[in-house]
């Protein structure tokens, strides 16, 4: 794991625990949420960090935070499967590439 990526990971929990996020303060002042984007090659490190550090750091302790973790990739797979479009999407991607899907 690169130092820059590790630094970004270490900033996630404090951001999620920040009063600004928890009190819906910021640009939209609507629903508090946080999106952490990363390169695909960091997927396994992110999963490990999420399960080992982030979720326990939010849900345990004197002031637990109720969270929802949404795996967008799995969500898309589920929606495509439910609509019986997954096989077509895979075939389209193989034939015409990512942009076409």
Structure in words:
The chain has five helices and no strands. The protein has helices spanning 3-17, 19-22, 43-59, 72-82, 86-96. Helix 1 packs parallel to helix 3 (43-59). The model has no long low-confidence stretch (mean pLDDT 88).
Q: Number of DSSP strands?
A: 0
Profile the largest sheet. Answer: none
Distance between the termini: 31 Å
| Structural class by helix and strand composition | mainly alpha
Discrete helix count: 5
Uncertain segments are none
Percentage of helical residues?
A: 55-70%
Mean pLDDT: 88
Shape: elongated
Question: How large is the radius of gyration?
Answer: 17 Å
H/E series, N to C?
HHHHH
- DSSP strand (E) fraction? under 5%
Sum up the structure in keywords.
single chain; mainly alpha; 101 residues; 5 helices
Short description:
The chain has 101 residues and is an all-alpha fold. Helix content is 57%, strand content 0%.
Topology:
Layout: H1 3-17, H2 19-22, H3 43-59, H4 72-82, H5 86-96
Helix pairs in contact: 1-3
